[in-house]
Amino acid sequence: MIANDPRVRRQVDWLVESGWVVDTLGLSGPAAPEASRHYELSAPKPWLLTKWGTLLVHTFVPRRARFRKLVTDRVPRELVDDIRVGAYDLIVFNEYEFTPWVSDPRDFTLAASCARLHLDIHEYHKPHVRRHTLGARLTGHHYRWVRRQIGNPAFDSRTVVNAQIGQLYVDELAIPQPTPLLNTPPFADLRPSGTIDDRVRLVYHGIAGWERGFHEILDAMRVLPPRFTMAFMLMPNPVITRQLEELIAEHPARDRIEILPPAPVFEIAERINAFDLELIFLPPRTTNLVYALPNKLFEAIQGRLGVVIGESPAMAEIVRDCEIGVVVPTFRASDLAAALTALTPEDIRAMKSAADRAAHRFNAEAEGRVFRDAIGADAESVAR
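Above: the chain sequence. Below: its structure as tokens.
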């Protein structure tokens, strides 16, 4: 849902602030309040969701006809008609799933081709489906074809979460270098919270997933001095949360570890401001984790927290440049514990002060200028 996707919401906001009139297309549910109109995708035809339907459409239907049946037939006719007659001056594609649409001459007519087409790729999408199920093997060729459309020359511009992931697409698809567009939240008018010399308040906020370094954090807490406390502020995931609760219940430092409810997206900075250090310890088990530059880094900066990370290159560049935290040389729990134990109260205060300075540099307002430059959306342009 667009209303719950902060990256898309920010892009809508930036365009509206620049004088554009913005329509949106997406799933049912709350729309971005700034949008002029929101078009909802209809549900897929029931037969397409059956095993026999999947077998039929992925075996016997040509790929462009298949894409129409799976995706564009779900787009409201009113919106399709507006695209066909060239009613839009700019069309922004969020992620890659709709990219083949731009090569469909029935909808992207000569009139429609006058629009500027922009693709926001977000993160790295692996070239192959990892699952080895029958369904994955059956649909894998469709996934690979849709993904290749990231390189479709019809797109005038592209954005991606950081330069490193952008370079992966350049090397693979021979596209122009996408513009890095950071996942930064709006500027929060906060100050660093006060520190307590004999207590260090650690926090992780975000997705509940074991690949997010939870085991390493828990192992580090086994040997960290009693002045360290740990809070997990997790997005809803009953299975992971229950597993984490069970591990905490048996943990020797269980009295210093807690699980907190998640904060609303636009209140995260305020909710984490009371802590001292954000742990973003992401062992590099996938390409996106290797090059991670997540929302939570910039939310921690807006919350005026110091940041403790592993050797994740995209994050490490910012952490070192802005002096907002510590880069642990490995992803071992013992090294995480050693790096934390070595911190003095003065170190932590200096990191939080540096985060206060960095908050004026890494925010949605600054990234809005990057986005508008990338798509050529000057303030005088107006699009429906």
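The first helix runs from residue 6 to 17.
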